[in-house]
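User: I'm curious whether this sequence folds into something compact or stays loose and floppy. Could you predict its structure so I can see for myself?
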Amino acid sequence: MALVIGKVWTDTVADVQRRFGEFALPAAAFVFMPSLLIARFADEKALGEQNAQLAQAVGGLVGVIGQAAIVLLVLFPGIDAGTAIRRAVSLTPRIVLASLAVLVAFMPVAVVYTAGGVQASVPTSVLLLLLTAVAVYVALRLSLLAAIIVAENTRAADALRRSWALTAGNVGRIFAIFAVFVLIFAILSGLVGAVGLAATGGTPEDPSFLTELLISIVGAVFSVFVAALTANIYRQLAG
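Assistant: Here's the prediction. I'll summarize afterward.
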């Protein structure tokens, strides 16, 4: 089935407009608050590079719960936010396990990038570009893992196969949708960060609390849209 981008967009916007109050609870608890706390207290200066990276990883894992809860609310309109969060918590280990396949796909990129250094040779740069393209392709083919596990209660291995099958022939469309959302998020984050810095001072390396607060809000709203978007892509392709 060919993905209809316009329908995915309108369905996602409609879901967010109609049910933002329900989506706000998991987004605030599992995306906004961890993001703000990490930005405020878990930077490299406070914890050191390794501990800061660990804090970021923990924040990402916690964020999976919020994303899964929002997907549940989209796909199962009859449940409430509390039920969605409890079910998301139980499904998160499977989602994380399945998502390790995406991490593995990006490992060669990290290895080549680290080995090449800042001034990589032309062959190394070309190899890095090719590996990145392959990793992004794999990530797009596996972009429905969370929605599949949430909707179908499948095992991690089955979710991998199911996502690969559902996204066949639609990689370009899925890439276009996510690229637009990431671009919008990057622009909004940049604007919000600039406004925060202009209003309260600070630097990009040492932003004010207001700047971190605004950026965390933008990130939480972005997570709501991405989760709703993923759910609607799944719903259309699985239907």
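Summary: The first helix runs from residue 5 to 41. The CA atoms of residues 81 and 118 lie 46 Å apart.
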